[in-house]
Write a structure and sequence with these properties.
By secondary structure, the protein is α+β, with helices and mostly antiparallel strands. The protein contains six helices and five strands; from the N terminus they run ααααααβββββ. Strand 2 and strand 3 form a beta hairpin.
Length: 239
């Protein structure tokens, strides 16, 4: 019987650890997918919003949102690394502050040695109990505010990253489009309905019902119905 119990215990532990690992991976994957979707949605809406276009006319699929969210995370990560490299002193100061913080956590004061200050030991038991209760309540309130602040910050991170990525994309494209159809890196197109030229410029976004362009002639973004619309490339691709 004892050998059977040992076999059951040895068989149960790996299964439990495997189930826990799979559960953790599932939770991380789900939260990551939600985060990428939020970043993709924020990037899309901010991008079109800066152009003055209605994002509702250009709905996107979940796959598009996830891919855009991944691109946003990579783009913002590179931008943050460049910012840290350009501000080495601030990065070093932050590193020193974090090192000091972890050093305090590992000190006897941070680990809780159980010793009381001399001024507290001189007080009566009732006063010491009141002070300990007040400090515990203050610590609880501070921890609660910290957790709420951290939760709000984590919630806002995808939206902030998406918004900054959308704005940065618009700034890059405006600089490129200002060169004109002949010199811009992006391809310029001509929109036609029959023999009529509806607009000439750079495609910003498209959907089954509408197409958005930055009109090179009018120097503004336009949303045009795709009904009977023909898109004509103005030049061959550049590689």
């Amino acid at each position: 019987m004892k050998s059977d119990d040992r076999d059951n215990q040895t068989n149960t532990k790996p299964r439990l650890s495997l189930i826990s690992s799979l559960s953790l991976l599932t939770a991380v994957a789900a939260s990551g997918a939600v985060t990428l979707h939020l970043m993709g949605d924020a990037t899309h809406k901010t991008y079109l919003g800066h152009w003055g276009l209605d994002a509702g006319l250009f709905p996107k699929t979940t796959d598009w949102m996830l891919i855009t969210g991944y691109s946003t995370a990579f783009d913002r990560g590179v931008a943050i690394l460049k910012l840290m490299g350009a501000n080495v002193l601030w990065s070093l100061a932050m590193f020193l502050v974090l090192s000091l913080y972890f050093a305090l956590l590992q000190s006897p004061l941070g680990s809780g040695s159980g010793k009381q200050p001399a001024w507290l030991e001189r007080q009566s038991e009732r006063v010491r109990q009141f002070i300990r209760s007040a400090l515990s309540a203050l610590l609880f309130v501070c921890a609660l505010f910290f957790l709420l602040g951290a939760l709000l910050a984590l919630t806002a991170v995808p939206a902030v990253l998406g918004a900054t990525a959308g704005k940065a994309a618009v700034e890059r494209e405006i600089e490129d489009y200002a060169k004109g159809c002949d010199k811009a890196t992006a391809s310029c197109v001509q929109l036609k309905k029959g023999s009529e030229i509806v607009g000439t410029g750079f495609i910003l976004d498209s959907s089954p019902t509408h197409i958005a362009i930055f009109d090179a002639t009018q120097q503004k973004a336009r949303s045009i119905s795709r009904d009977g619309l023909e898109t004509v490339a103005m030049r061959t691709p550049k590689f």
